[in-house]
Amino acid sequence: PAGDAPDAAPVEAREAGPATVEEDPAWPSTPRDTGPGRVEDRAIEPPAALPGAERSAPEAVQFESSDGVVLHGSLWRTGDPAAPAVVFVHQARSDRSEWAGVIEELRRLAPGLTVLAFDLRGHGASTRVGERSVRWKELQNGDRTGLRRWASCTDDVQAAVAFLRGRVRGTVPRAIGLVGSSIGATSVIRAAANDGVVGPGGIAAVVALSPGMNYFSVPIEGAAETLRMRHTPVLAVGARDDTNDVAGTAERLQGILGDQLQVLLFENGGHGVAVAAAHPEVAGTIVVFLKARLGLL
């Protein structure tokens, strides 16, 4: 679709003030700004930690989007600055803590991965732009970008990727995986398509939990076509009882991506991270997929 701009230049993250190296007090229960809404933008409580999952406090980090939004995140480092990395992106009207259970399982089964979860603009702690504020309630639909646009969440993901590539923190991951839920899935698919790094350090895997072709009028078809041309592997996870027709989206993505797409569909489970909470095997499937594509198997 026009305006999807899959070949845009990668975004550089800008450091938001002095580097902060301290445990993140916000994990795993960052503030939420909730309210009624459609399934795809409903706040979901984070799933409980999975049995045997490792608990450890992450480091609090912050970085800026290209338009100046200070994005707050939780970072788990490894002893290897070149370790593969994974970025987790939440759904609308939620925050990074929704991924707590999946991240703990990932860290238990793949301790060699650097992990970053962050709050999208207008969500959780990511609500400041200089002296101004931005809230999810102000974000507008459509494919145009701007400070208060859902489409600009793609820019937030690109800023997180740039942050991990060492432009701020000194890490240079060998490969990067992106994991997103609902509008987060939209954002990681588009960010992977926009990414200009091919080969080592590039986006090697994308996981889309409850993806939609046009959430908040932000399309993914053009981005999916770009991922097909780049041979980027994608895992789509969802439930048939999701009123957003995730099953239909998976079918359309299969038509675009072919064998590059792996699909895990359940009969029930709802939307977004609720699917992971209802089906514990989701976390394990995500971990195996990421380990294989990021060179840990």
Describe the protein.
With 297 residues, the chain is of the alpha/beta class. The protein has helices at 100-109, 153-167, 183-194, 221-230, 246-257, 273-278, 281-293; strands at residues 14-15, 59-64, 70-76, 85-89, 114-118, 128-129, 132-133, 176-181, 203-209, 234-239, 261-266. The protein has one domain (14-28, 51-293): Alpha/Beta hydrolase fold, catalytic domain (Rossmann fold), CATH 3.40.50. The protein has seven helices and eleven strands. A nine-stranded mixed β-sheet has the order 1-2-3-5-4-8-9-10-11, sandwiched between helices. It has a two-stranded antiparallel ribbon with strand order 6-7. Helix 5 (246-257) links the parallel strand 10 (234-239) and strand 11 (261-266). Helix 1 packs across helix 7, helix 2 (153-167) crosses helix 3 (183-194) and helix 3 (183-194) packs across helix 4 (221-230).
Summarize the structure.
With 297 residues, the chain is an alpha/beta fold. The protein has helices spanning 100-109, 153-167, 183-194, 221-230, 246-257, 273-278, 281-293; strands at residues 14-15, 59-64, 70-76, 85-89, 114-118, 128-129, 132-133, 176-181, 203-209, 234-239, 261-266. The protein has seven helices and eleven strands.
